[in-house]
Design goal:
This protein is α+β, with helices and mostly antiparallel strands and about 110 residues long. The protein is built from seven helices and three strands, in the order H-H-H-H-E-H-H-E-E-H. Strands 1-3-2 form a three-stranded antiparallel beta sheet. A hairpin with a 2-residue loop joins strand 2 and strand 3. The longest helix is centred in the last third of the chain and has 14 residues.
């Protein structure tokens, strides 16, 4: 799902913008940029920098239903903006910074 100057670029960018077009998903992405600050009140199950934030902590912080948060994280994952990692029975998410840099470069060349 690379974002390049090629023909797939527009379709990829549309998926990214759809994913970020929801205020709650955008807020989650902002929280995940600095997980140690935004999730400090939750005891980490694993290292936040390497595996990300547990979905239960995202759900608790957002106040949204578990099913809603799962749907939102799936949307962000399909757009390539986050990466999931299983730690035991828990799924953790972290931002895909390389993908976000690709998106930023593509915006600069396509708009």
């Amino acid at each position: 799902m690379a974002v390049t100057a090629g023909s797939r670029s527009g379709a990829d960018l549309i998926e990214v913008f759809k994913a970020l077009g929801n205020p709650a998903r955008l807020q989650i992405m902002q929280w995940l940029k600095d997980p140690d600050t935004h999730f400090r009140e939750y005891e980490p199950i694993a290292d936040r920098q390497s595996v990300g934030v547990c979905v239960t902590h995202i759900q608790a912080k957002s106040g949204l239903a578990q099913s809603t948060v799962s749907s939102y994280m799936s949307t962000l994952e399909r757009a390539g903006l986050v990466r999931p990692t299983r730690v035991g029975k828990w799924t953790h998410f972290r931002r895909d910074e390389e993908r976000l840099e690709q998106v930023a470069r593509a915006i600069g060349t396509t708009i």
